[in-house]
Design goal:
It is a single chain. The protein has 394 residues and is of the alpha/beta class. Helix content is 35%, strand content 16%. Helix 7 runs parallel beside helix 9 (243-256) and helix 11 (328-339) crosses helix 12 (349-357). The longest helix has 15 residues, at 34-48. It starts with 13 loop residues before the first strand and ends in a 7-residue tail after the last helix. It binds adenosine monophosphate.
């Protein structure tokens, strides 16, 4: 078992805390502070125990360059407001200024480093950069679940250059809930997968076939499977590269007795836009139409399945839900999942927005803070950002 932050002594120690402060920003203004709020438990705990805290995060994709519009300065201000406490912001990630400020930190002080991805070493897990980050640091705490599937310096590399590395409360909670789906899951266990990309869902489906009773497939990814089943899909999304794999997965599901369901009717349009004319097709889709949402029959049959479940894992919308006209399938599934007497685990930014849009997020058992990371965890992979943590304190 990996160490959790409350299992180690942090008093008077310099602690490097990696969080996920990758908040949506518009003209330097934070649009949604959820990610900062979610990190507060671990931050408050560490300062209450007398840690000298150095916090790090990435923001967006500056690709190793300093991009002022991706500065963490507004985040430092928001964190300071939320904690009602000074947050030192050196405006740099490493270097002399950071080093001298690090040394001056007193127990309970907080410093937030500038965007770690301003340094090209970060995403390369560069050893020298990792060493720089670890300079004068005693303990590394990872609480950035959403970044834990990435072997980057501030997530993984740093762990090799500190005495002890532990997880924060947010990651501990993610593991606790996501493990409900990977270790002895309650049955019937249903996984609902949607979204556009077949590629990212293939390993998940493969792994889920060992555990789930039923797979409900929707969204753009379903058309590659529907074509494999011999249906006409018109101009709907089609992933040629993963077509054979899709066929294989359908076969595997059959062999293992897993019920794999696909949309039987489709809300279609000639173009993906708000004022597009909508037509519903059952089974085959006409040549110049694109499938943009699941139809009423599919909604009802999926709801029926969900009503029998004890555990539901959901990732990816059932249609182009960003456009109101095409969002009904996703919203109805969100409601069914939320209202069911079941454990519900939702991951992935889009499914999370969908449950928020449907106004049912408070009825979901666990909303994961990491889309890619939760998918990898559910696929049975060990996440490098968790794997690198210590089993015991040094
Ligand atoms: P993913 O990142 O693979 O989970 O895909 C999420 C995206 O899939 C969302 O932006 C949806 O708009 C999109 N999507 C869902 N259903 C469809 C569809 N039928 N056709 C095209 N895009 C879709």
């Amino acid at each position: 078992m990996k160490l959790r932050v409350d299992e180690i002594v942090v008093n008077d120690k310099r602690v490097f805390l990696r969080v996920d402060f990758n908040v949506p920003l518009k003209d330097g203004v934070i649009q949604d502070n959820t990610r900062i709020v979610k990190a507060l438990d671990t931050i408050k705990y560490l300062i209450s125990k007398g840690a000298k805290l150095v916090i790090a995060s990435h923001l967006g994709r500056p690709k190793g360059e300093v991009k002022p519009e991706l500065s963490l300065k507004p985040v430092a201000e928001e964190l300071s407001r939320l904690l009602d406490k000074e947050v030192i912001f050196p405006g740099e990630v490493i270097g002399e200024k950071v080093e001298s400020l690090k040394k001056e930190l007193k127990p309970g002080n907080i410093m937030l480093l500038e965007n770690v991805r301003f340094n090209p070493g970060e995403t390369k897990n560069d050893e020298n950069f990792s060493k720089e980050l670890a300079k004068d640091i005693d303990i590394y705490v990872n609480d950035a679940f959403g970044a834990s599937h990435r072997a980057h310096s501030s997530v993984v590399g740093i762990a090799s250059f500190v005495k002890t590395a532990a997880m924060g409360f947010l990651i501990a909670k993610e593991i606790e809930y996501l493990s409900m789906a990977t270790e002895n899951p309650q049955k019937p266990y249903i996984a609902i997968l949607g979204g556009a990309k077949v590629k990212s869902k293939i390993p998940v489906i493969e792994n889920l076939l060992d555990n789930v009773d039923t797979l409900l497939i929707g969204g753009g990814m379903s058309y590659t499977f529907l074509k494999a089943l011999g249906y006409e899909i018109g101009k709907s999304l089609f992933d040629k590269e993963h077509f054979e794999k899709a066929k294989e997965l359908i076969e595997k599901a059959r062999e293992r007795g897993v019920k794999m369901l696909f949309p039987q009717d489709h809300v279609c349009a000639k173009e993906i836009k708000e004022d597009a004319e909508v037509k519903v097709f059952e089974k085959d889709i006409e040549n110049d139409y694109i499938g943009v949402d699941i139809g009423e029959k599919t909604i009802n049959s999926y709801k029926e399945e969900i009503s029998k479940a004890k555990l539901v894992v959901w990732n990816g919308p059932m249609g182009v839900f960003e456009i109101d006209k095409f969002s009904r399938g996703t919203t109805e599934i969100a409601k069914a999942v939320a209202e069911g007497d079941l454990i519900s685990i939702i991951g992935g930014g889009d499914s999370v927005s969908a449950v928020k849009k449907a106004g049912v997020s408070d009825k979901i058992t666990h909303i994961s803070t990491g889309g890619g990371a939760s998918l990898e965890f559910l696929s049975g992979k060990t996440l490098p950002g968790i794997e690198c943590l210590s089993d015991k304190e040094e």
